[in-house]
Amino acid sequence: MKLTYRIDVRLSPESTPKAYGFWSEFEESNEDCKSHSELLIRLIELYKSASLLSTNFDLLSNLTAEKLAQKFRVIEPRTGTTEKNTRVLLETMNGLLFHLGINGFITTDQLHTQALQAAETKVAKDVDNINKRNLEAKREREAGSS
Hints:
Layout: H1 17-29, H2 36-71, H3 80-101, H4 114-145
Helix pairs in contact: 2-3, 2-4
């Protein structure tokens, strides 16, 4: 049995200006659609593909963060140049990850992706561990030379 749904929707510039403006622009950009039903079907298809893209982007971001964390176990900034280059790399990677899903480039001051947050947490823990080991080694050397 095939179901048919009837939906009566009235859009006007006065009562629903945003929806009316969106629908008008969408209608103009999809002139090949012969009816409002076809337009609505196209809008639903676009929504589904955008939703799927968002899900795939999150998965890709997380996988990329895991691979980067495995590949680069420890990033230990030793000089200002290294720290600057590391920051440039993080900004570029964050922008690239975001760019894969959305047109444009975005920096970490505008948006922190989940992948970047995971990578920052991992690097911070690694740097803390390195600092602790270096401090312990320094204390052992000082105790040994006394």
